[in-house]
C-alpha cells in the first residue's frame, strides 16, 4: 500500500510540474508572440514609403509610460482621421494594404504600433485599451476630432471595446475579430494542439492573469458591440478563416445594432481579405468611411 501511495504521489507531482511548465509555455505564446512582418501576409514590410505615401513617425505615450512609435499619414484637405490597429504578433504596417486607398479618399491615417512592439506584452485586447486611449488623446490634442477606427484581428477586438467605451469614435470597421478572447484561445488550442479544455486551459488562464496582470475572461467584444449603436460599424471576415472561426463574425454581427454591415468573401486565410480581393476590400473600406465618416 505504501508503495502504491508513493507511486501515486510521484505521478501527481510529475503531473503538476508538467501542467505548470505547459501553462507557462502556452501563456508565453499569448503574451510574447514573435513580432515580424510577413510579406505574404502583410505585403508592405518597408513602411509607407513603399507605397509612395508621405508620412511621419510620431511618438504616442501611454499612461503606463510606453512610447508607441506609430505612422502618421496626412491627407490633403482631410475630411477625417482613421486610427488603424494591428493584430496579435503584428506591427504598425498591417494596415498599409488599405492605406493608399483610404488616404487618397481624403483621410488622415494613424497606424498605431501596439505595446508588444515597445517593451510590453500582448494581452488579447486587455491592456491594449491603454494604447488606443493614448492614440485618441494624441489625435484630440492635435485638433483631430472626427475619428474612425479600423482594427485587424486582435486589433479588431480591441477596437470594438474601445469604440463602445469612447463615443468620440464615429465609425468602425472590425476585420477578422473575435467575440471572446478566451473562446478563440480555447478553439486554437484544440485545433492546433489537440488540447481539450481540462485540465490545461484553466491553468493557462491563471498563468495569463497572473503574468499579465489582467482578467482574460473580461475581454469580450461580444458583450460590448451592441452599445456602439447608433454609430455605424462594418464587420469583415473570411468565411473560411483558418484561425478565428467565421462564427465569431456572425455572433458579433447578430449582437450589433444598426447601422451595420457584414462583408465575408470566400477566403480561407486569417486576416487576408485584402490579399484575396484587393479592389473589393478597398472598395468596401473606402465606401463605408465615405458614407459614415465625412
UniProtKB/TrEMBL annotation:
Keywords of this entry: Hydrolase, Membrane, Transmembrane, Transmembrane helix
Keyword field contains Ligase: no
Keyword set includes Nucleotide-binding: no
InterPro entries assigned: AB_hydrolase_fold (IPR029058), DNA-binding_regulatory (IPR052920), Hydrolase_4 (IPR022742)
Residue ranges occupied by any Serine aminopeptidase S33 domain in the UniProt entry: 77-177
Regions that span the bilayer: 7-26
Organism: Leptospira soteropolitanensis
Source organism, top-level taxon: Bacteria
GO-annotated molecular function: hydrolase activity
PANTHER family: ALPHA/BETA-HYDROLASE, ALPHA_BETA HYDROLASE FOLD-1 DOMAIN-CONTAINING PROTEIN
Protein name according to UniProt: Alpha/beta hydrolase
Gene3D superfamilies: alpha/beta hydrolase (3.40.50.1820)
Amino acid at each position: 500500500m505504501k508503495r502504491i501511495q508513493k507511486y501515486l504521489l510521484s505521478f501527481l507531482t510529475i503531473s503538476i510540474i508538467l501542467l505548470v511548465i505547459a501553462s507557462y509555455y502556452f501563456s508565453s505564446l499569448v503574451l510574447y508572440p514573435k513580432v515580424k512582418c510577413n510579406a505574404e501576409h502583410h505585403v508592405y514590410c518597408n513602411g509607407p514609403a513603399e507605397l509612395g505615401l508621405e508620412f511621419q513617425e510620431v511618438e504616442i505615450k501611454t499612461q503606463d509610460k510606453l512610447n508607441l512609435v506609430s505612422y502618421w499619414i496626412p491627407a490633403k484637405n482631410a475630411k477625417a482621421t482613421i486610427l488603424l490597429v494591428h493584430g496579435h504578433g503584428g506591427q504598425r504596417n498591417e494596415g498599409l494594404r488599405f492605406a493608399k486607398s483610404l488616404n487618397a479618399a481624403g483621410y488622415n491615417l494613424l497606424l498605431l504600433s501596439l505595446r508588444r512592439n515597445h517593451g510590453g506584452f500582448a494581452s488579447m485586447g486587455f491592456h491594449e485599451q491603454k494604447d488606443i486611449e493614448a492614440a485618441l488623446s494624441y489625435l484630440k490634442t492635435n485638433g483631430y476630432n472626427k475619428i474612425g477606427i479600423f482594427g485587424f484581428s486582435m486589433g479588431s477586438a480591441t477596437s470594438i471595446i474601445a469604440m463602445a467605451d469612447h463615443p468620440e469614435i464615429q465609425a468602425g470597421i472590425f476585420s477578422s475579430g473575435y467575440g471572446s478572447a478566451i473562446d478563440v484561445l480555447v478553439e486554437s488550442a484544440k485545433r492546433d494542439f489537440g488540447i481539450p479544455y481540462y485540465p490545461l486551459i484553466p491553468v493557462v488562464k491563471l498563468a495569463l492573469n497572473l503574468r499579465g496582470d489582467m482578467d482574460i475572461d473580461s475581454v469580450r467584444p461580444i458583450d460590448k458591440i451592441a452599445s456602439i449603436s447608433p454609430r455605424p460599424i462594418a464587420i469583415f471576415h473570411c468565411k473560411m478563416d483558418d484561425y478565428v472561426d467565421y462564427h465569431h463574425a456572425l455572433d458579433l454581427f447578430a449582437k450589433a445594432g444598426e447601422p451595420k454591415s457584414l462583408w465575408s468573401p470566400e477566403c480561407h486565410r486569417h486576416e487576408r481579405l485584402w490579399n484575396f480581393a484587393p479592389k473589393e476590400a478597398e472598395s468596401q473600406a473606402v465606401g463605408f468611411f465615405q458614407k459614415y465618416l465625412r
